[in-house]
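G., the chain you wanted modeled:
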Amino acid sequence: MKFEFGVYSLGERIPDANANVLSAKERVENIIQMAKWADEAGLDVFGIGEHHRLDFVTSSYAAILSAISRETKKIKLTSTLSVISTADPVRVYEDFATLDLLSGGRTEIILGRGAFLESFSLFGASLDDYDQLFEEKLGLFIQLQEQEVVNWKGDFRSPLHHAQIAPRPVQPKIPMWIGVGGTPASAERAGALGANMVLGLLAGEPERVQYLAKLYWESAEKAGHDLSKLQVSVTGHSYIAEDGKQAMHEFTPHYNQYMGHFMKDRRQFFPPVTAEQMMSQRAANQILAVGSAEELAEKILYQHELFGHSRFMGQLDMGNQPTARVEKAIDLLANKVAPIVRNALNK
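Predicted structure as tokens:
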């Protein structure tokens, strides 16, 4: 299986170092441009995350992906991720089936529970039902993939009686991934269902979360799924420059802005770090995907031995990273990192 590379945006619009904030229109246009660069560079996949707050522009992420579908030619388009727990699976399926038609069969979807909770109160869901909502909504989405006419009954949505689910996508099924943070049960569920798994990794040593990949592969094998047809993806904060030290110096101020903003929102203090303090994160045995192309390739190959993954996706535009630097980082990912990794794995 070809090792794939991609980038994604969560679409945050937070104050920069001078307290300036991009307009929502500017931020959306930047995301579309980022996707076009990724497509032109030859990357495999582009994703947008779902958020429902004033400091994000991606509440209607499927609409933005639809706009991107008409501006790109080859790149796969996915959510990163869809908060299925608080959405109507029928509506989500219809949106992504339509996206598949618009893109000519280039659509995927990542389903999960997300790191933010604002959608629960916004859409009338209770946090007391956190696990049950995800189980039920995920199960319904899977059924929608299988059947054009659906009969279904659950606890959190009105029943479906001979419901016609349209349109149907170009692909027989929309490739489905399940997003996993640090919950073992989520990894086991993804494997048992025979879905692909996305590991959202932000910091620390990859050995600490190797057990999640192990649980996934063991659960998939136990359920009788063909492991050769399954994929694991690693996603997280990322940045690439020609030189590793340069990369960390350019990344750190934006990392501080991003983390400081969202930790403050959660009433937690994030102590700003210096580039010098972050230099150790360039090592292969650290999760943070920042450094030179050679350093990032070494990191991906190191993690491949632990996770058996076949896709990497980086969040390159976080914290108001200048668009010119994002374009350069995309070029480095596609034309330097990807060849190193693929050549090493094909030996």
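The chain has a mean pLDDT of 97.

Shout if anything looks off.
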